[in-house]
Design goal:
This protein has 364 residues and is of the alpha/beta class. It has twelve helices and ten strands.
């Protein structure tokens, strides 16, 4: 009986999270037809990204927007990134260059590089993406900066990953969408806690008023999520998740590289505000316990009640999480969501254990 009560409590916790996710999945995306052309500085930090810059900067310059500049930051690259940047500077007056050299104090810290890029920007509205990212349409700048007002100074966008064959690609896309559903839903509930640098906008005023990245400059990662975690509020944050405002990045192609990336992300999340860590931890632990306790209940308890609880849990899972996947253009994954969920939980558990045993002092 105690096992059943515990399992029911876990299912209830899961369901409460799914209901909260409905804040996003049931929110219609209705862009304003009269979107102003605010002056915008698009900032791209590139480290050994010559080929990606050649492919993607033209897509930025082709945006349907009348007043923007592109700040290309060479973050101490060892390839011909600077040469590529110089070519764009010479061919288009909208492109500005910032070249970073390694030094003893910062040693090519991306936050330091971004800070210099922000100082170079002439416009107060800043839109960030990565060198390996492509905007989904020529309306990306317009859509991502349209919500800016005197009060709204932080815009959270969605950075998708390109679709390829293979289980790793599917898992990466599943984790990306699930993470987006979480941070969009919590933001809509009045508790924004993270964003992704692949598609993020904020004002220079917000940056300078909060002393930029100074509070976490010594942490190698987190130029996006730690900054958002520190400065975002219910009042100053808004979302953009129309398809035309997505960015698309090339995902990792090996399990080793992706797991290394996830290990680094998890150590960064350890620096979130305590309330955010508690909620995120509760979500993961409750999901893990569901998959552990469900088979035990079918073994040791009459199957009817556990089956009803499992059916109830997955019904709401598909209603709210599945709807979020459709909103973010991953509807073909919906039939297999339980499989991806279990696989991600097991992978994350492995990463947690690995980080507990051995955490590198410096992430590459």
């Amino acid at each position: 009986m105690l096992l059943l009560v515990f399992f029911a409590a876990v299912v209830l916790t899961n369901v409460l999270f799914f209901i909260r996710f409905s804040k996003f999945s049931l929110t219609p995306s209705t862009p304003d037809e009269n979107i102003p052309d605010y002056p915008v500085s698009v900032i791209v930090c590139a480290k050994n990204e010559a080929e990606n810059l050649r492919n993607n900067v033209p897509l930025l310059l082709a945006q349907d927007h009348s007043n923007f500049e592109v700040i290309l930051i060479n973050d101490a690259s060892k390839d011909d990134t600077q040469d590529v940047i110089n070519e764009f500077v010479e061919s288009d007056s909208r492109v500005k260059a910032v070249e970073i050299q390694n030094n003893e104090a910062f040693w090519s810290n991306k936050k330091y590089s971004l800070t210099l890029g922000i100082k170079k920007a002439k416009h107060q509205r800043l839109l960030f993406t990565d060198a390996d990212c492509q905007p989904a349409s020529n309306q990306w700048i317009r859509l991502m900066t349209s919500p800016f007002t005197e009060e709204k100074q932080l815009v959270l966008g969605y950075g998708a990953y390109s679709k390829h064959k293979g289980l790793l690609n599917q898992l990466i896309r599943f984790e990306t969408v699930l993470t987006a559903i979480q941070y969009f839903s919590h933001a809509l509930s009045g508790m924004p806690y993270m964003g992704v640098g692949r598609n993020l906008a904020y004002t220079s005023k917000l940056f300078y008023d909060n002393r930029g990245f100074m509070s976490h400059m010594n942490i190698k990662s987190g130029d996006d999520d730690l900054f958002v975690n520190e400065v975002a509020t219910q009042e100053n944050t808004c979302l953009v998740f129309q398809k035309d405002a997505f960015t698309f990045s090339a995902p990792k192609t090996s399990w080793k590289k992706w797991i290394h990336q996830k290990r680094r992300h998890i150590t960064t999340a350890a620096h979130y505000q305590p309330k955010h860590k508690t909620i995120l931890g509760l979500f993961y632990v409750s999901n893990l316990l569901f998959w552990v306790l469900a088979p035990l209940c079918f073994i040791f308890i009459d199957w009817k009640i556990p089956l009803a609880l499992v059916a109830f849990r997955f019904t709401l899972f598909y209603m709210f999480v599945g709807k979020g996947f459709k909103l973010l253009e991953e509807k073909e994954m919906v039939p297999f969501l339980p499989f991806y969920e279990l696989l991600l939980i097991l992978t994350q558990l492995t990463i947690f254990i690995s980080n507990s045993i051995s955490k590198p002092k410096r992430w590459k």
